[in-house]
Amino acid sequence: MAPDATAAQKPPVFPVADAAAIAGAKAKLDAHTVEMMAWHFHPSTGCPFWLEYAQSLSFNPLTEVKCYDDLKKFPPFEDEWLRGGPVRRWIPRGFADQPAYVFETGGTTGVPKSRVNMRDFRTDYEQFSATLPEEFFPRGANWLMLGPSGPRRLRLSIEHLAQYRGGICFCVDLDPRWVIKLIQKGWMEHLEAYKQHCIDQAVTILEAGHEIRCMFTTPKLLEALAITLEKRGTTIRKAGITGIFSGGTEFTPQWTRFAVEELLDGAYMTPTYGNTLMGLAASRPVIPADGYTIAYYAPQPRAVIEVVDFDDTNAVVPYGGTGRVKLTTLTQETFVPGFLERDEGERELPYVKYPWDGISGVRPFRALAGATTVGVY
Amino acid sequence: MSLPAPIHLPALRFGKPYESLERTKLVHFLTGEPVAEVSQIGGAMLGRDMQKASRAREALLRIDPEEIVERLQTAGNLYAHGTLPMGDGRQSPEDFVKQQSATTGLPESLCRANMQKNLFVLSNMDRMLDALSRGLPPEVFWKGYGREQRGVVVSYQAQSPVLGLVLPSNSPGVHTLWLPVIALGLGLVMKPGGQEPWTPYRMAAAMVEAGIPAEAIGLYPGATDVGAAILASCRRSMIFGSAKTVEQYRGNPGVQVHGPGFSKIIFGDDCVDDWEKYLDVCVESVAANGGRGCINTSAIYASRHTAAIAAALAERMGPIDVKPPEDPDAKLAAFTVPGAAKAIWEQIEGGLKAPGVTHPTAAYGPRFVEGERCGWLRPVVAHCSSPEPAIAKAEYMFPFVAVVQCPQNTILEQIGPTLVATALTADAAFQRELVSCTEIDRLNLGPIPTTKLDWLQPHEGNIIDFLYRSRALQVPAETAQAVS
């Protein structure tokens, strides 16, 4: 169905995808969905979890899912299923002989949620690589990974992105679970000291002649790095960085404007929205004329983001309307149907490069916001 | 007069207005009418601007200190009587009162009273500085050293070019604490209270209009990360908060924390039989300024007649009721955070059920009054037969007092931290104990309401001791003669 542009609050200032492109993407997603059902629910290729779960369903996913919308037949995915072992129950039999990684999310207290990966993180970041402008992320350039490390997918993904583009990735350790504990304990001086410890290492690497041009970092660390460099009489751009890839729900239009106008000194920054389950969603260009709106588009058909009604989570909201983020992951390694994320935002019109729905204004879901610690590293 | 048209308040980055893409909307606590939008900035912007904080002090030092004091006195007059530029509009004193009342829930009469306090402090800045510095020539703070009246060279070293302030929303009266800072040659970096941006904004506008350099004043409205950035980047800062905030920054020499006051009235055995003579002092101490301040009395200690004192206070304060904010007789402020009044009342109700506690104000009708968008608490007097019940040590932001029975010889062991104590005693021995009691900060010997401040005395520590370090500075004898 062609988007109802009149429902959006303002005329779009970005090129909206045409109806043919949208229909083409929809057909591709429907076909991909059927293909994924055939893989995940076939006894020779599916993972133990889904094969066992299929026994409890009132429909046969192999024959009764004929398009993406048919995935609504699945009950909501419960992320609690991802806590604890054995994690091998999530590995498709079709990949049983492949080396597996396990990536964790959460885990400041209690058992973290985990997702097994064989190659997905590489595929996601190789696809994302195509969205990076060569001018600012030159091939062969070295990277700095200044973000969460440890059992997180991001650390290996950024290193793979750098390698895929012909560069080498320099890394700084950062444990976000400790950061969250420092905040919960009110140890703000320790928090500041830990942040500075990370920044000091980043500055040392940037000044050590490694010819680093590209960087992944979080908004909080980008702020701290820029201010530290400014105190040393230099800037992010003068330190050699031309392209920054960043992510986090604190990526607000105001923050982006501040970064562009005052922190980056001309370096290019592309925001992303992602997590261990989905992979990562690229943004359309962030421009002043669009009020620095940050709109993300999922890497369809491997993952789909829908902005759904808070009460009826099978209904998307009108364009410009506010709703909860509903995520579906459809890769050979991972099938997650209709997972309700802990975020909300506004539904965005399809963009010419990504002819499917996007989301802007991503922020913690209002009903859970008080219990969530965000923007911490 | 109706509510002024809504205005937008930008951040002021050391004088430069900055309009953010993110704004909070402030509405009237009763009607929900829009009052203002306030630009919200992030902590990093403040952190970045702080690199240039030394310019704030330099801008002030270019002006003669006596001239600064004169300009502050002019600013006081403009603040109280002038129509000033305010964001994208202009603001008369009456606009200010309406706007402040609308977003804080304070009765307009109390907003006006707080304006007079601020005016008094600015108008008397020369006397205040003389009192706080114990008569030092003001040039000492400009030059860093000088000769005091007895002929000795003294040095006062500024510990920071600016004072950072994380301001509260609940009591416009606290702003008097930071007004002397500009006169001491230091700039101001303020995070205004979310509901009460009005006083710092109007004060900044008045100061700039009076010729105080705009680059000496920063106003950074935002979320908690702005407060954290102030504390992290200013070498001297003041924060207003709860007992938990006080605990968090205890022992940090760069942070002066203003939390609950737990102020008290203490009857000596020699005066308690005449308790009726002191009832006015007690009522004023508990109920002045809506009972919102840390200097409002939260407990009265006496060895006898406590039930009668509690009953008499209940008779005087119990009938005080909610009135429209524009009513000149309105004495109670609204709790504008949804659910706050109800939650506090439930906590008090629990405390009143403890053994040894009675509730004399119960006879004067319900204490919790629920509004459509806010709530009120009418005065509560609790009687405690000993200091044991938890409610004897409580403090709330409305007229609340626990009248506690306690033998005189154990009162000072029991009172705990006390910002202001009014001691009603002529017993010289007991007075000596009170003077020595380190739990008490400000001590009133005699029937002075705890809410009555002598501005020529330091409040919660001398601000000069906080902002300056008195240190040795030696010059050769032949040069010393030339030091003015």
Task: List descriptors.
heterodimer, A: 377 residues, alpha/beta, Rossmann fold, eleven-stranded mixed beta sheet, two-stranded antiparallel sheet, 9 helices, 13 strands, 29% helix, 22% strand, disordered N terminus, disordered C terminus, B: 484 residues, Aldehyde Dehydrogenase, Chain A, domain 1, Aldehyde Dehydrogenase, Chain A, domain 2, seven-stranded mixed beta sheet, five-stranded parallel beta sheet, 17 helices, globular
Tell me the layout of helices and strands:
The complex is a heterodimer of chains A (377) and B (484).
Chain A: H1 19-40, H2 48-54, H3 61-64, E1 101-105, E2 113-117, H4 120-129, E3 142-146, H5 153-164, E4 169-172, H6 176-185, H7 188-206, E5 212-217, H8 219-231, E6 243-247, H9 253-263, E7 268-275, E8 279-283, E9 295-297, E10 303-308, E11 322-330, E12 335-348, E13 358-364
Parallel strand pairs in A: 3-4, 3-5, 5-6, 6-7
Antiparallel strand pairs in A: 1-2, 7-8, 8-9, 9-13, 10-11, 11-12, 12-13
Chain B: E1 7-9, E2 11-13, E3 16-18, E4 23-27, E5 34-39, H1 43-49, H2 54-61, H3 65-81, E6 84-86, E7 89-91, H4 93-104, H5 108-123, H6 125-132, H7 139-143, E8 145-147, E9 153-158, E10 162-166, E11 187-191, H8 198-209, E12 217-219, H9 224-233, E13 237-240, H10 243-249, E14 255-258, E15 263-267, H11 279-287, E16 297-302, H12 306-317, H13 340-352, E17 357-358, E18 368-370, E19 375-377, E20 380-384, E21 400-405, H14 408-414, E22 418-424, H15 428-436, E23 440-445, H16 463-467, E24 468-471, H17 477-480
Parallel strand pairs in B: 1-5, 10-11, 10-13, 11-12, 13-14, 15-16, 15-22, 16-21, 20-21, 22-23
Antiparallel strand pairs in B: 2-3, 4-5, 6-7, 8-9, 9-24, 17-20, 18-19
